[in-house]
C-alpha cells in the first residue's frame, strides 16, 4: 500500500516540514516551492493532505493564505499549534568564534535579535530557514551560520552551536490541515472549530448586526480578520473562526442571522474540525 503524502511550503527541514512530521508521522512529507504549488498538488490529488501555516503569535497572519484559501476548493479538516524553536547552526569545524554571518528568513532573524547582537553577527536575509541551512551546509564555510530547525540540522549535517535561541519563548505557529475532500467533525466532538468567510451587505452597521447573533447565542469567536478582495476598496471579505459546530442549534442560529446580512452567496464554511489541544492553554 502506497504511503500517504502531506505537502508543505518550503524546503525539507522547514518548520512546516517539522509540523507535518509531528502531526502525521506516518505520512511522507512533500516540499513545494510556493503555497500555490501546495494547493495545486492537493487539487490534483498527488498528495493527500497539506500542512499550511496560517498565523504566528509574533509575526501575525500569513497573508497569502487568506487570499488563496477561500477560492481553492479545499477544506480545512484540522489544525495544529507548534511552538517555534530556532537553532544556531553551522558547518562542522565552526564554533561561536569562527562565525561572522548568520542567514535565515527575515522573520527568524527578527525573532533572534538578542543572540545576533550578542555574538556581533551580520544578519543575511534568505528565502527561508531550511534553504539557508542547506546553503550554509553546501558552502562549508565556518564563518557562515544559519538559523533553522533541529530537523534541518539533521537533514543537512550541520552542527548546533546554540539551542532554542528565540527571543520569546511563547513563539507559536498555528497551521491548518487541508484536504481535497470535505470531512466535517462530528457534532458530538467535545470541542470543535468552524472556519468561514463572508462579505456583508453595504448597509449601515451591517457588520455589527451580522455579528450580533454570535453574542446572543453565546458563541465564542476566536478569530476575525478583514482584507480587500479583487483590488476593490468596497469589497471587504471577513475570515472567522468560532467555537462550535454548524449542526448545533446555537451556532446554526448565529450563522443564519449572519447570512441575512451577508452579500448573496458569500458566506462559505471552509472547515469544521476538532480543536487542537493547545487551545486549552488559551482558556
TrEMBL record:
<dbReference type="GO" id="GO:0005737">
    <property type="term" value="C:cytoplasm"/>
</dbReference>
<feature type="domain" description="ACT">
    <location>
        <begin position="195"/>
        <end position="274"/>
    </location>
</feature>
<comment type="pathway">
    <text>Amino-acid biosynthesis; L-phenylalanine biosynthesis; phenylpyruvate from prephenate: step 1/1.</text>
</comment>
<keyword id="KW-0057">Aromatic amino acid biosynthesis</keyword>
<protein>
    <recommendedName>
        <fullName>prephenate dehydratase</fullName>
        <ecNumber>4.2.1.51</ecNumber>
    </recommendedName>
</protein>
<keyword id="KW-0028">Amino-acid biosynthesis</keyword>
<feature type="domain" description="Prephenate dehydratase">
    <location>
        <begin position="5"/>
        <end position="180"/>
    </location>
</feature>
<dbReference type="Pfam" id="PF00800">
    <property type="entry name" value="PDT"/>
</dbReference>
<dbReference type="GO" id="GO:0004664">
    <property type="term" value="F:prephenate dehydratase activity"/>
</dbReference>
<dbReference type="InterPro" id="IPR045865">
    <property type="entry name" value="ACT-like_dom_sf"/>
</dbReference>
<keyword id="KW-0456">Lyase</keyword>
<dbReference type="InterPro" id="IPR018528">
    <property type="entry name" value="Preph_deHydtase_CS"/>
</dbReference>
<dbReference type="InterPro" id="IPR008242">
    <property type="entry name" value="Chor_mutase/pphenate_deHydtase"/>
</dbReference>
<dbReference type="InterPro" id="IPR001086">
    <property type="entry name" value="Preph_deHydtase"/>
</dbReference>
<dbReference type="InterPro" id="IPR002912">
    <property type="entry name" value="ACT_dom"/>
</dbReference>
<dbReference type="GO" id="GO:0009094">
    <property type="term" value="P:L-phenylalanine biosynthetic process"/>
</dbReference>
<keyword id="KW-0584">Phenylalanine biosynthesis</keyword>
<feature type="site" description="Essential for prephenate dehydratase activity">
    <location>
        <position position="173"/>
    </location>
</feature>
